[in-house]
Amino acid sequence: MATTRSTRPDPLTLEVVELIGAVVARYYAEYEEAAAKHALTGAQARVLSLLSLEPLPMRRIARSLKCEPSNVTGIIDRLEARGLVERRPDPNDRRVKLAATTEEGRSTVSRLRESLDFAREPLAQLPAEERAVLRDLLKRMLGVEPTPR
Amino acid sequence: MATTRSTRPDPLTLEVVELIGAVVARYYAEYEEAAAKHALTGAQARVLSLLSLEPLPMRRIARSLKCEPSNVTGIIDRLEARGLVERRPDPNDRRVKLAATTEEGRSTVSRLRESLDFAREPLAQLPAEERAVLRDLLKRMLGVEPTPR
DNA sequence: TATTGTTATACTCTATAACTATA
DNA sequence: TATAGTTATAGAGTATAACAATA
User: Fold this and answer.
1) Distance from CA of A57 to the nearest CA of B (A)
2) How many CB atoms lie under 10 A from the CB of residue A61?
3) Going by C-beta distance under 8 Å and a sequence separation of 6 or more, which residues neighbour residue A144?
4) What DSSP character marks residue B91?
5) A74 touches strand C (CB under 7 A)
6) CATH code assigned at B57
7) Residue A9 placed within a domain
């Protein structure tokens, strides 16, 4: 099932692809490292950050994590055991459990964010104009509509 | 400990940081998906790709994967059991084992590369000029010296 | 003594399947 | 009957500690 492609990527594209891979690897590694500083795994840190925005049903967390719902049970269990998250009933549907951050969970998230310097630090050295260019390029890469002005 | 920062990130920087996070998540997910298409885990795919460039001692693989050497044993075991990799003695140091891709391993890597469309596809839609801009921005993010011309 | 790779162990994340309680 | 969350199970990646072979 390998699709045969008539378009051969040019050297510049290949170089950019490689650089993107390097950025991804670096970002991922630093995220794990920052999470570990707070005794969290990457998955725990992602869930905690997600829940700091709003309480969510287990199912929604699984969708966001791109994993099976059964896995979320354990992740929330461990966060709950540490007092960072709590399970609440959903008034509208008694089958649903909402996972929500505690006060301590939110403060952990905010300290976690502080540790994530990689993406922010080098960006600060770019002139605002180039940050805007980068923003537009990234949006196009993600298939998002161009920035309105 | 959290370093207190006097510089407060501006909205544009925050937006770019968020976009980078989105790109990283997307890239990572698509890499795992591409690996799974060939019945490989992400770690197996990364090691196999790495070894397709040159045979490496177990220790070097661990360094590249940013994990403990003891974990590499199992990863190589599983790749070897499938005939994608083989262990060879190092003539210079009898303690060392070199992991090397087999012919089938190399062909898997090349098919794997074919499946990695995310980073390539949207880039192709960018004019060459903007790809060059992106390349320079990424290099600066990574702390690489600016492109010579 | 130091280094390389391995084994043993324990924990986390993952998918799958079966279960429960609601809807 | 369908859905939400859970449990049970098995495989993979991870760190730690201890070990054999070699340097």
Assistant:
1) 21
2) 20
3) none
4) T
5) yes
6) 1.10.10.10
7) no
